Amino acid sequence: MQQHLAKLKADGAVITFVPTLGALHAGHLSLIKRAQKLGSIVVCSIFVNPTQFNDPKDLEMYPRPIADDIQKLKQVNCDVLFNPGVNEMYADNEKWHLDIGGLEGLLEGKFRPGHYQGVTQVVHKLFDIVKPDIALFGQKDYQQFLVISRMVSLLNLPVKLVMCPIEREADGLAMSSRNIHLSPADRKHALILSKTLNKIKHEFNPDNISQLKQQAEAVISNEPGVELAYFEIADGDTLHPADKNTKSFVALVAAKVGKTRLIDNVIIND
Ligand code: AMP
After folding, report:
1. Of 46, 215, 267, 269, which has the highest C-beta tally within 10 A?
2. Burial level of 222, CB count in 10 A (0-12/13-18/19+)?
């Protein structure tokens, strides 16, 4: 992969990169389409990275429809697929730690200990292999974008990061590879997440943050089949709980719907 891309780069290609765990949907494909506009060669990686899963069951259950994925990548004319095996990516007993500051213990970091260490570990490796000029990530994983931005700035990595908007189903559900695990009843109950985020965006008032947050928590907790992990109205740069003096706001939610853990968020003001 390094040799192949180095040759293209020497010929003047601008490499854009979309890392994924596969089970591709229209959200992933929107990143690839955006990447095609920003550069000349688009690389997509599909790698279900074991080090970012803190729950072995979740890792085992993660969908891996590689033949369908290849088909979808062909349909959108993605130039290069990188689909390594676990043994190619990791040596035995490899150690990794990056100081990601407060983001480590907040929100997803708190509920999925070690998750962002695994994410930075694999994204660092992937960047080292692909050496992209531009890497694209979804707003869907808002905290992940902040964590990767921090890694890029801490390690002075020569890559530009681009955040792409959340693709949703017609009824508002954020697209996710995990949605296939939702039963028809779960699928209906899951809508409470995007509905509540939307409501918060429209009713947002910086003087009323704690009340809005409490109302949102109550509405989501009362939805049958939904177990709320967190709902937060946070500072868009630090993810610390927002207050009156915060400049950019983002509302983020995580919940288990049936057996499936879902996340979603909305940027309240850019
Ligand atoms: P994943 O395979 O879930 O790791 O996602 C790969 C990339 O696609 C990440 O940058 C995600 O944030 C992004 N992504 C996932 N779901 C969506 C979505 N519904 N809309 C836009 N981007 C998404």
Report:
1. 46
2. exposed
Which atom of ligand 1 approaches the CA of 165 most closely? 21
Over residues 176-225, the pLDDT tens digits come to 999 999 999 999 999 999 999 999 999 999 999 999 999 999 999 999 99
Quote the CA–CA distance of 181 and 45 in Å, as a whole number. 23
Overall number of domains in the chain? 2
Tell the residue nearest (CA) to atom 18 of ligand 1.
27
Segments forming the whole domain that contains residue 208:
177-269
Residue 270 has what pLDDT? 54
- Ligand 1 and 174: CB distance under 6 A: yes
pLDDT at 170 over 70: yes
**Which residue's alpha carbon is nearest to atom 11 within ligand 1?**
138
Residues recorded for the chain: 270
Is 151 strand, coil or helix? helix
CATH number of domain containing 194: 3.30.1300.10
Q: Distance, CA 265 to ligand 1 centroid (Å)?
A: 13
Contact (Cβ atoms closer than 8 angstroms) between residue 142 and residue 37: no
Letter for the amino acid at 35?
Answer: A
Here the CATH number for the domain that contains residue 84 is 3.40.50.620
What is the Å distance from ligand 1's center to 168 Cα? 11
Query: Measured in angstroms, how far is the CA atom of residue 87 from the centroid of ligand 1?
Result: 24
The pTM of this model reads 0.98
Q: For residue 136, which atom of ligand 1 is closest to its CA?
A: 10
User: Would residue 4 show up in a list of annotated catalytic residues for this protein?
Assistant: no
